[in-house]
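Narrative summary of target 7.
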Amino acid sequence: MLSLENSLIKNYKSITILVMSLMYVFIGVKHFTDPQYFINITPPQIEYKSFAVYFTGALEVLGGLLILNKKTRKAGAYTLIFLLIIVFPANIYLYLSEIPQQLLGVSKTQALTRMPFQAPLIVIAYWHSKENHPKWVAYLSAIIFLPTIIYFLSI
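Modeled conformation, tokenized:
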């Protein structure tokens, strides 16, 4: 029974890696095809907004591609964790300022709802970082994956 359970989690994890890779690559490419969207939520303290948008887009594409290969998965996962941490101020700015809310057509409540989803994305990236984790990390990541993806597909 334990072997079946491990096999199911391993197969599910493979699916989550593929989905997350596609999501990160898609959003990363969007940084280059629609940079203004991301410039709109870049905090005013960031001087070189275009550079920041292209840099974070490149990190998303790179991390998304690196997690696909077992040999580069750890580097990709840690790249994505770094990315999620450095873009968090944009989520705070989106919540605190009416200007980006109006430009993106989101309410203050929607901006607030968006912020906590960085945490499950970091947990999932950490889960992807190596083959074996304690069971609680695998179960938690498996459980939070679906609601997290559903949320991001809805925005």
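The mean pLDDT is 93.
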